[in-house]
Amino acid sequence: MAFFEQHIHSEPKTFISKYIFSYDHKVIGKQFLWYGIIGLGLGGMMALMIRWTLAFPGEAFPILGNLLFPSTGGVVPPDTYAMLFTMHGTIMIFYAITPILIGAFGNYLIPLQIGARDMVFPLLNMLSFWIAAASALILVASLCLPLGAAAGGWTSYPTLSTLIGSPGAGQTLWTLALFLLGVSSTMGAVNYITTVIVLRAPGMGYFDMPLSVWGLWLTAILNAIFLPVLGAGLLLLLFDRVFGTTFFLAGAAATTGTGDPILYQHVFWIFGHPEVYILILPAWGIVSDLLSFFARKPAFGAKATALSMTSITILSTIVYGHHMYTTQMSPLLTQTFMTLTMTISIPSAIFFANWLGTIWKGSIKFDTPMIFSLGVVFVFGLGGLTGLYLATVTTDLYLHDTYFVVGHFHYTMAASVLLGGYAAIYFWMPKMFGKFLNEFWGKVHFWITMIGLNGVFMGMMIVGYAGMHRRLYNPFVYEFMERLIPINAFVTYSALLMGLGQIPFVINFVYTIFFKKEKEPVSDNPWNVGTLEWTIPSPAPVYNFKEIPVVKCGPHELGNPNLPEGKDFQYQTEEIVEA
Amino acid sequence: MNQVMTNKDFEAKQLTSSIAMIVLLVSFTMLFATMLLGFSVYRLTVDVWPPMGMPRIPLTLPMVSTIIIALSSVALVLFESAFNKHNTKAMRVYFALTYLLGLGFMFVQWQLWNSMAAMGLQASGGVFPSLFYALTWTHAAHIVLGLIALLFLLPVSMKGYSMEKVTWVQNVSKFWHFLGVVWLVMFIVMFVF
Ligand code: HEM
Ligand SMILES: [Cu+2]
Predict the structure, then answer these.
(1) Is B124 on the interface with A (CB under 8 A)?
(2) What is the ipTM of this complex?
């Protein structure tokens, strides 16, 4: 703990050193936040175009359609549809959720919550953001190519993603962009892991870290280990496309090749399954902390929660085969992967029970961050339960690649991670910007989002269960699907509702940061919680801590009956009050 | 950092950078491990190796590479110990030796690719040559990175020992030895078997 103390930063003077090429983890965090929110908007527009096509085939997409697809009179053309779902998935996962949870809150929270003045490698941190920015630029630029952007799905399976499946440069740029992003994230991971190990404030053991830091740290470890696996797959794919190697080409697709498209799937999912935990772990950590803060109770079984998260992290590395039951795997293997996957339910159940234990009999304060956190508990429960059907070989054989899958992963990744991210934004806003987001509009935002997303994702599961296949351009070519039209239309209306529901948030966010004047400055600790970032002024000063704090107790010391009258929490820098 | 480093600061800095370097090397290990996994899958599932109509790549050049890279690692170890003993003259010699051997490795690699081309093995000629090209390309790209990293030790070898540079020396040499080990594994898995 605290192998050394960093020097106090001097204040940057110029605009460029302050906002553009900043070394300050707090500024880099905010850069990632904007980056992610823009990604969310872009990916969201694409989702709406996909949904519009499914519910109203042959009708022009309103307003933007004529601008974007003049040749078809505003209707989304089939090849563009494939591009849309590919870019939607890619942008949402890698350019929206990842930067918000890991880029923004990883950067912002880790040093503040462990009592450090910055990351250990500030320069590396800055480079990591700018490489990510370059990667986004490449990806977005690929939308303007004559043959269009990548269209092989966010997984980019060969043969769809080889030169035979997608001859344009879009797929090449996609591969390049993701490789670059991998480099950026690995740099971030090295920084996060090292920072947590060497810069924890004196007295702070691993179990004294807030669970948010636990989640972010485990995520960083998964990133460091598994991003290079994707990197290798992408490199080979790039070689196939650029230098004519034949790793992933087989049969008629190859000229002389004896390659194997299934190998790509193995490599992709060895990375891909941990990746879904990379996305969810920070949200789990943040929610675990917030539930305790707003229930005014210590997190129930905090140590068990941290250990469950750790065991899930470990287990997540050996279950990837459940994505590939339909690839003629030997039954011996499918059964093994099924069993391993089911094993994850045990630690998941433990910490899910801990969440419930935390709010049980708490004096819950329903502020916006809390209702978002409760939303996470709800949607993640649903997402987790539906996962069991997909982990079971016999049911997956039927459900594989239907909208049921789409509904399931949206509940876990999209819904719960997104809500977790929003909870974090509403909660740390005063520390980040020195101002509160408007509570009323926050609640409006929550309820519209919650109703919208349940409509969308529940609907997706229903049409999927009825047999509707994913990535289908026109759902009405099969007779049985005509009867699904009403549900599909309902899903689309829900998606529109959810999309509209983000407008209050964006306005609230932009207005608060740039225009709102607080009547009196936000206090150091407006939520009355004890973690280290609340011991310093809001917004946090450049050097974070004038004096490096000395930690004496855990992060969730709330509601201790021995505390003096009128006080119900303790700072981590205070000795625990005993009777 | 103009102020003199205290001993404690120095140790902390060293520890920090070695933790970071280890994490980084784990990442690189996974990159190469994945590629070698791919290699092994093809190797183990094919009926005959090399596949029909493909010549086996002679061992000579890879063997020479292996010897060169091993020697360069030895030279770098000697450089490190000269550095720690503040022996600037020996440092210069061993630095030059390491660097030349590194360049020599790249040269032999180049010859290997030429000889493969001469045998009719093109990168696009099926998965067998693809594997050899892709893995050696990736490794060679890292050697180039390593050679660039070694350049950062050039000022050190000119000026001699300084406490501030200890972590530099340690980290660059960790990376360089790592590349040597990766090549050794590649040599055994890809060329010998
Ligand atoms: C606004 C809410 C959203 C709606 C209405 C929505 C809708 C859709 C639709 C219709 C598809 C196409 C499914 C298919 O045809 O295969 C899709 C795919 C996908 N979405 Fe979303 N989505 C939303 C948010 C998100 C978020 C936040 C994420 C981030 C984790 C996400 C990740 C994905 C992924 C990974 C795919 C798969 C793309 C592929 O087929 O390769 N979505 N989404
Ligand atoms: Cu999985």
Answers:
(1) yes
(2) 0.93
